[in-house]
Amino acid sequence: MKRYAIIVAGGSGQRMKSPVPKQFMELNGRPVLMHTIEKFYSAGSSIHSVVVLPKSHHSAWATLCHKHHFNIPHQICEGGISRFQSVKNGLQLCVGESIIAVHDGVRPLISPDFILNLYKEAESNHAVIPVCPVSESIRMVIGDDSKALDRSQYYSVQTPQCFLSDLLHKAYQQEERPTFTDDASVVEALGEKVHLFEGESSNIKITTPKDLLLAEAILKG
Description:
The chain is an alpha/beta fold. It has a single domain (2-219), classed as Spore Coat Polysaccharide Biosynthesis Protein SpsA, Chain A (Alpha-Beta Complex). The chain contains seven helices and twelve strands. It has helices at residues 32-43, 58-67, 83-91, 112-125, 165-171, 183-188, 209-219, and strands at residues 2-8, 26-27, 30-31, 48-53, 75-78, 98-104, 127-133, 138-142, 145-149, 155-157, 161-164, 195-198. The strands form three sheets. Strands 1, 4, 5, 6, 7, 10, 11 and 12 form an eight-stranded mixed beta sheet that branches. Strands 2-3 form a two-stranded antiparallel sheet. The protein has a two-stranded antiparallel ribbon with strand order 8-9. A hairpin with a 2-residue loop joins strand 8 (138-142) and strand 9 (145-149). Helix 1 crosses helix 4. The longest helix has 14 residues, at 112-125. The model has no long low-confidence stretch (mean pLDDT 95).
């Protein structure tokens, strides 16, 4: 079955306190986004990558690709005003029966083997997301009060989230809602079951300067 990867890269440098969008910041000498695209290509050269970028970033990305001699095949798609709209735009370039992985452009440390395992899992389970157990104590805040929760019942969610194409296309025909925080929540709104898959601890999302330092350390072993 054909495989697509929608790589959503619409972030800004706000939490990085940088004028450079975080997906364009350098990690080990190259933009973060290049590492991410490369991981999917390493997982399989037949995986068709659709990179969703704000239109205002397209020329900057082209310049970076030229500067770094980056020639891994990928298709550029214009981002929307929200993540939901960006994924919906990317889906327009995913044609035919396939498995579609939706991934954060700023999760560059995912392993190719992990990507392949998620695609394989989605073949039989239709909707699969990687999760990791919450390791710290957590509390629920209610007004001025709070209470401890049983952390064994909670998991943090990663990407890529993998779905059969028919299911994901159908899910994104819905009207956008505030409760749609990721692709799994969009699919669940159809009444579909989402299957959990053990995540990778190194598959971190780069949103702060500390995350970038950690990613550099992981890459250097």
